[in-house]
Amino acid sequence: MTQASSATVPAGSVISQNPAAGTSVPPGTTVNLVVSTGPANVAVPNVVNLTQAAATTAITSAGLAVGTVTFANSATVSAGSVISQNPAAGASVAPGSAVDLVVSVGPSIGPVPASVELQLGSVVVAAGGSTPIVTIVRDAGNQPIVPMPAVTYAVVSPAGNLGAVPTAEGAPLSVLTSADTRGAYTLQATVDGTAITASVSFAVIEATLPAGATLGNGERLVAFGKAGGTVADKVAAIATALASGDTASIPALNAALQAAAAAVPVSGRNGMERTTAVAPDRGFLPTTSFLTSRGFPETAGDVSFGNLLTQIDAKVVQITTFYANLNPASATDDEATLNQLNGELTVLLDQLIAVNVTPHGVVKHAARLNVLLGQTIPRHLQALSGRVNTVLVANLLASNQATPTEFYAALAQTGGEQVLPATAYQRQQPAFFGLVGLMAGSNIQLSLVNKLYGKYLQEVTRMMILLGANSLLQNYLNSAGMEGIITGASLSFHIPNRAGSVIEGTGHNGVASRNDVFFVGPDAVAAVQGVLSSFNPSNVESLEDLYEFFDGIVSALQGAGEAYENAHRLPSRVNFGGCILDFGENPSCTQLDYDAGFPDVNDGFLPSPVIILVHNLDTGTWSQGIFNFVAN
C-alpha cells in the first residue's frame, strides 16, 4: 500500500488499485492500493514587512485565509505593515488554513494622531435612556492607534433645549440622558493634547419604556434609530470581514443585521407607518395661519426646507427602488450607479444642514416629514438589509461553512470553476456586483440615511420645544366628521370589494397613508363600541394619548378574533373638491378613495353592521360611522 495526496478523494479512502477491478487473477494475488492523504498541502507565503492589504492578497492567492489580526508597536516595521505571521513562511499547511498576522502601529512612543472617528449607537435617544459611544483615533496612514490615546468628550447644548444636559460617561462609554432631557445636542470628542476633534449630533425625545407588547409613538422612533445604527454597524463589519477574508464571522453579523431590521417593521400594529414624528410632548400643532398671526410667518428657509424635503424623499425612494430592482442578468454598472446615488444624497444632506427652518416650516410640512421618517426611510432600511442578505446567500456567506476549504469548494461548485480567495471577492459576482463594492457603498449610504433621520428629528424636536415655549400649541379639538360611504347604487346597504368605494368626510389627512382607517366587523362591533364609549376628549393631552386610544381599539379587534391586517386598510388616494353625499355644499369635505373597495369583514350572508373609523395621524382628529354591509 502506498499513499498519495488527492484533491477529490477524502483522506483514508482508496484512490486506485492494481490489478484493476474485474481483472481475473490467481488466488492469493497481491492487490496494491494507493490511499489518499487528502488535499496536498500548500506553502505559507512570506508576508512579513508587506502592508496588511498586500499580505491579505498574498495569503488568499495561495488558497489560505487571513486569521486573527492583532496590532503591536514596532520601531522597525512601518505602521500598517506585517511584523510577524503564524504559521511561519514556508510552512506546509492544508488549503484554507488561517494565517494569523501581527500588524505594526508604529514605534512604541506611539504614532501621531491624525484624525478621530466618532459614532453613536443611535441618532435618537429616549429621555432617561442612553446610547453607546464608539471612538477610533487614526494615524496619518488611516490605521487605528492601539492603545487609543486619551480623548475628552463634551456635550454641547444649544439654547432652547429642556432639562438636564446629557453626559458622556460610564463603562462602556455612553451618552446618558435624564427623564426631563429634551432637544437637539452635539457630542464632541477631542484627542488630548491636539486640535483633532470630531462631532456627532443627536436628538433626545420623550419615549416611555414599553409597558406591554406594543410600542408607543416615541418608542418606535427610538427603536428605529437603534435599528438603523445596528444595521449600519453590521454592514460595516461585513465589509471589513470580506476585505480581510474573515468569512467565518459573516453569518453571525448578517443574522444580527437582519434581526435589527426586522425588529421595527414598516407596517403592522407596531409599524413605523403609524408613527407621528412631528408630535409635541403635550398639546397639538397650530395652523400655519395662526403661526403667521403670532409672528412666525413662512420664511425663505422654510420654503427651501420644504423643497429639500421633497427632493430627499424622492431620492431615498429612488435608492430603495434601485436595491429592489437589482438584476444579475443586467449589463448595468450597478456599483457605479450606487456610488452616484450616494453622491447625490450627500449633496442634499449638505444642503439640508445649511437650511434654517422655523416652526412654520415644520408645521406646514408635518405630513411629509412623517411620511419620510415613518415610511420612506424605514422602507429603505428594509430594502437594503434584504438585498444584503440576498447577495450573501447567493455567495454562500449567510450560513456557516465548517472550514475555509469547504467554503471555497462550495463556491467553486456553484460556478463550475475553481475559485481562489484572491478572486472570490473582487470579481463580478452572479448576485449583481462585487461584494466589496456593494458593502462599501451600502455602508456609506446607511451613514448618510442615518444622518438624515437624525437631522430631521433634531429639527422637529427643536421646533416642538419652541412652539411650547411661545405658547403656540393648541388644546385638543376633534373637528372631523364622517358624511358617509359609497360602495354602489344603494346607500342603505353596502358591499365590500367594490372598486372605487369612498369614505366622505371632513378632517381627513391630505396624504392618503396618513389616515389610519379601521373596518370593524360585526363580531368585533360590541368590543370596539366599549372602547369608543370610554373616549373623553378632555383627557386627551397629546397625540400619544390618541395613539394609545386607537391601540386599545386594535386590542379589542384582535380580542374579538378580527385580524389587524384585514381591519386596517389605508386608502389609495385623497380626492379634494367636495363630496357627493352633502351635494357639494362643504368644499372642505374630502373623499378617501379605495381602488379595490373596502375589506370584507362580514362573515355572514345577512346585512350586518360595520364600524368605520378614520384617524388623522398628524392632527389627531378622528371620525366614525356605522354602516350595514351585505355579502358581495
Write a brief caption for the model.
By secondary structure, the chain is of the alpha+beta class. The chain has helices at 52-61, 217-244, 250-263, 288-293, 300-324, 334-354, 359-364, 366-394, 404-415, 421-424, 435-469, 522-533, 543-559, 564-567, and strands at 2-4, 14-18, 32-36, 42-43, 65-72, 82-86, 92-93, 98-104, 115-120, 124-126, 130-138, 151-156, 167-169, 174-176, 183-191, 197-205, 481-486, 501-506, 515-520, 573-575, 590-594, 608-616, 622-629. The model is unreliable at 424-433 (pLDDT under 50).
Poorly predicted tracts of residues: 424-433
Helix content: 25-40%
Distance between the termini: 81 Å
- Structural class by secondary-structure content: alpha+beta
Q: Can you count the beta strands?
A: 23
Q: Quickly count the helices.
A: 14
Provide the residue-averaged pLDDT. Answer: 87
Biggest sheet overview: 4 strands, antiparallel
Strand content: 15-25%
Multimer state: single chain
The largest beta-sheet arranges its strands as 9-11-14-13
Number of structural domains: 4
Rg computed from alpha carbons, rounded to a whole number of angstroms:
31 Å
- Overall body shape: globular
